Amino acid sequence: MMEKEPKAFPKLIVWQRAHELTLLIYRASEKFPRHEMFGLTSQMRRSTVSVEANIAEGYALGSGPNYLRHLKISVGHLLKQKAISKLPTILNICQTQITRN
């Protein structure tokens, strides 16, 4: 069996989608008020970065329990992001929905 290249994670479709979400959140949160820099802006950005980072880290560690553990952590961060993604609209910080289903 051939070893997988740890640096090949950008080829993973799941990582690509997570990266797209990170870019979406960063662009949308640039418009947030300055007083949210260390609150909602930071929380949203950190959770999406954690999704793609855990996918990459798990992939680099190889298959099996470590990879699955990191994927589960990614899912947790994604669910956190989904839970807080409605707040900017509710709080009138952002006029448009900033995440996709």
Number of domains: 1
The percent range for helix content is 55-70%
CATH architecture: Up-down Bundle
What is the makeup of the main sheet? none
What fraction of residues sit in β-strands? under 5%
Overall strand count: 0
The helix/strand series, from N terminus to C terminus, equals HHHH
Using the coordinates above, name the CATH class: Mainly Alpha
Give the N-terminus to C-terminus distance in angstroms.
37 Å
Q: Quote the CATH topology.
A: de novo design (two linked rop proteins)
Q: List low-confidence stretches.
A: none
Compute the number of helices: 4
Q: What's the pLDDT, averaged over the residues?
A: 87
In terms of structural class, how would the helical and strand content be classed? Answer: mainly alpha
Q: Name the CATH homologous superfamily.
A: 23S rRNA-intervening sequence
Q: What best-fitting shape do the alpha-carbon axes yield? A: elongated
Cα-atom Rg, whole angstroms? 15 Å
Please provide a written account of the structure:
It is built from four helices and no strands. Helices cover about 60% and strands about 0% of the residues. The protein is elongated. The protein has a single domain (about 15-90), classed as Up-down Bundle (de novo design (two linked rop proteins)). It has helices spanning about 15-30, 40-60, 65-85, 85-90. By secondary structure, it is mostly helical. It starts with 12 loop residues before the first helix and ends in an 11-residue tail after the last helix.
